[in-house]
Design goal:
- A 12-stranded parallel beta sheet has the order 25-27-29-31-33-35-37-39-41-43-45-46, with no helix packed on it.
- It has 4 domains: 90 residues, Immunoglobulin-like (Sandwich); 149 residues, Jelly Rolls, CATH 2.60.120.200; 160 residues, 2 Solenoid (Alkaline Protease, subunit P, domain 1), CATH 2.150.10; 51 residues, no CATH class.
- It is elongated.
- By secondary structure, the protein is mainly β.
- It is 3% helix and 35% strand.
């Protein structure tokens, strides 16, 4: 049995992969180390220690037996975190999930097929019983692999109908397409006359396909080369393999599909070329049925609607509900994912997602309030609570009308027209803007702006840019059109034309009865530029 495998990325709160993490694997629900051995690869004996350090930021190990585990993750200097109840499972192609209780009626043996005759029951059967009963989708009927120099019940005849003894060629070391490495021999079809390789009659209870491997060999790179002509029931269906100079002497895969229900014989004809060095090698031949899903639909209860999934509801025209408990709540709505809901003209994609009218919600639990209109929420737990809001990023929230929250944990509060951009930025007042990681415009600070990492406003109608260590540079001109232009406390510094700022100067000395000087000093003092300490 294939080894069970766990492969998960280790990420921080921003979604970045975290390398050099120590991984410890415990028995599920305990602090005891896992009893099973950890392996590096799906096969082989190379093992992992427990714990081990992953350099690439991925939990990646194999177990001989599937089970649930607890995984501890620790980066140097951190207390570590734990993830409980992770399932270590075999590859999907090695598993079957039953929809209800399942009983196998008999014992297995090498070469048998497990076939379900009715819901909840299955039996091991051989290929002959499988062909004459009801095979499951993608079930293989028969395979001719020629390994060991045998053609089993395949018949090879010449144009006169006489049986021909094939020549087997060892192709063990000959490079072959991925997925065909298992065989060691191919048939070399003679070059003297037309030769046919025929299968016995097989009953196809579903539409099916023939897949085969072949190589055309010629000394003249395609000129006068042999060709193959594959047919079903005397040209009911056929395909003539192409002869392209660049592909000559290279293994190629041929297909013959849409073989209908009924009993059919497959014939592969070899037609020799004019070059005596030209011949065909025929590799494995597989006959499959059930691999063509017939055209079908899953109509909902309204015109042109579609529903798929247990409890799914598509009760409005042109709506689509896919997933268990998925529901559409208006026309032209699309709900995709477990318990997703989409209103009029909306799209909800993700488990437990909700999209109000004309809205879009993408991500697990992404929500635009069903009673509101025009919202866009993208990201896990992203929320738009009012009309025309936008929340983009995991846990981003746009709570008021026209609110915009962009970034992990960003929040635009309930007042109208708030904008928060940056991880954990918060704009909680009407018409406010918070721009930068952790920037905050507090409740009541209407029409204020906080720009920079961690910047927070202190009053309404205020613009704060950066912190006390920030230098604001205006390359162009600066013009102030209303209110007082400059503010500062007694300890503020002020400089002009590139000079460093100084404290407000104190003017000393006597005015000597000069009225003009007295007036000038008074005006400068009233503006706050100087402190008048002069005497008359």
């Amino acid at each position: 049995m294939a080894r069970a495998h766990l492969h998960r990325a280790i990420t921080d709160s921003s979604g970045n992969v975290v390398p050099n993490t120590q991984v410890t694997v415990y028995e599920a629900g305990t602090n005891g180390l896992l009893v099973q051995q950890l392996y590096v690869n799906p096969t082989g004996s190379q093992v992992r220690t427990n714990p081990y350090t992953t350099s690439d930021g991925y939990v990646d190990f194999y177990l001989d037996r599937p089970q649930s585990v607890r995984v501890g993750l620790a980066v140097q200097g951190s207390p570590g975190t734990y993830v409980d109840d992770l399932s270590v499972l075999p590859p999907p192609e090695n598993m079957v999930q039953a929809a209800h209780p399942f009983q196998v009626l008999n014992g297995s043996a090498p070469g048998l097929f497990l076939q379900s005759g009715q819901p909840g029951q299955a039996a091991w059967v051989d290929a002959g019983d499988l062909v004459n009963s009801k095979p499951s989708p993608l079930q293989q009927i028969y395979s001719y692999d020629f390994s060991g120099g045998t053609i089993e019940d395949l018949t090879i005849i010449n144009a006169a109908g006489a049986a021909v003894v094939p020549t087997f060629m060892d192709v063990t070391v000959d490079p072959k397409p991925l997925g065909w490495e298992f065989f060691t021999s191919a048939i070399r079809l003679p070059v003297t006359s037309k030769i046919s390789a025929r299968t016995p009659l097989h009953t196809w209870s579903e539409t099916g396909t023939v897949i085969f491997l072949y190589k055309v060999v010629t000394a003249q790179q395609g000129v006068g080369a042999a060709i193959l002509h594959v047919k079903v029931d005397d040209d009911l269906l056929f395909v003539e393999t192409p002869i392209v100079a660049d592909l000559t002497n290279v293994w190629m895969i041929g297909y013959l599909d849409e073989i209908p229900l009924g009993s059919h014989r497959i014939t592969i004809e070899h037609r020799p070329g004019i070059d005596l060095d030209s011949y065909v090698l025929l590799g494995p031949l597989r006959l499959q049925h059930g691999n063509n899903i017939p055209a079908h639909d899953h109509p909902g209860t309204a015109e042109l609607s579609t529903r798929l999934g247990t409890g799914a509801e598509a009760a409005y025209a042109r709506s689509t509900a896919v997933g268990a408990q998925a529901r559409t709540l208006g026309v032209d709505a699309t709900a995709f994912g477990y318990d997703s809901q989409a209103a009029l003209n909306a799209v909800a994609a993700g488990a437990l997602s909700r999209a109000g009218s004309e809205g879009v919600a993408i991500g697990c639990r992404a929500t635009t309030t069903l009673t509101k209109t025009g919202g866009t929420a993208i990201g896990e737990d992203a929320v738009v609570a009012d009309d025309a809001g936008i929340a983009l990023g995991s846990t981003a929230r746009a709570e008021g009308p026209n609110g915009i929250a962009l970034g992990f944990g960003a929040r635009a509060g309930t007042p109208v027209n708030a904008i928060a951009i940056g991880a954990n930025a918060q704009a909680l007042a009407q018409g406010s803007v918070a721009l930068g990681q952790g920037a905050v415009v507090a409740v009541g600070h209407d029409y204020s702006m906080a720009i920079g990492s961690g910047v927070a406003t202190t009053a309404a109608r205020q613009a704060r840019i950066g912190d006390s260590q920030t230098t604001v540079v205006i390359p162009g001109s600066f013009r102030q059109t209303g209110g007082n232009a400059l503010f500062g406390g007694p300890s503020s510094l002020l400089g002009f034309y590139g000079n460093p700022g100084i404290l407000r100067p104190r003017v000393l000395g006597s005015r000597g009865g000069n009225a003009t000087l007295a007036s000038l000093l008074t005006l400068l003092a009233d503006m706050g530029l100087v402190e008048d300490g002069s005497t008359s």
